[in-house]
Amino acid sequence: MSTGSSIASLSSAVSLATGHGITSTLTKTLGMYADSMSNRLNNYNKAHKHSKIYMDVNFGSIYSFHTF
Questions:
Q1: Are 37 and 65 within 8 A, CB to CB?
Q2: Is residue 33 within 8 Å of residue 41, measured between CB atoms?
Q3: To pair with 33 at 20 to 30 A between CA atoms, which of 17, 23, 62, 65?
Q4: What is the pLDDT of residues 15-63, one digit of tens each?
């Protein structure tokens, strides 16, 4: 499990325990987004082993991966 997902899961559990259901849902969503981004970055890195890669993230939290 990635660090982003672990932090979001812990935060979600605390939010549920304190009765903040909306916060819990938002942190779960953030954790899933972080996991998805991490998995896609790892796969892109594996596919381009001999290239330098970079990730571009815009203000809308849309990310993309590219090579130099």
A1: no
A2: no
A3: 17
A4: 666 666 666 667 777 777 888 888 999 999 999 999 999 999 989 888 9
Q: Which of 12, 46, 49 lies closest to 31 in space, CA to CA? A: 12
Q: Measure Cα distances from 64 to 15, 41, 54 in Å.
A: 31, 9, 9
Tokens standing for 10? Answer: 């812990």
Question: How many angstroms separate the Cα of 14 from the Cα of each of 44, 50, 54, 61?
Answer: 34, 43, 34, 25
Report the alpha-carbon distance of residue 6 to residue 55 in Å, rounded: 22
Report the 10 Å Cβ neighbour count for 35.
16
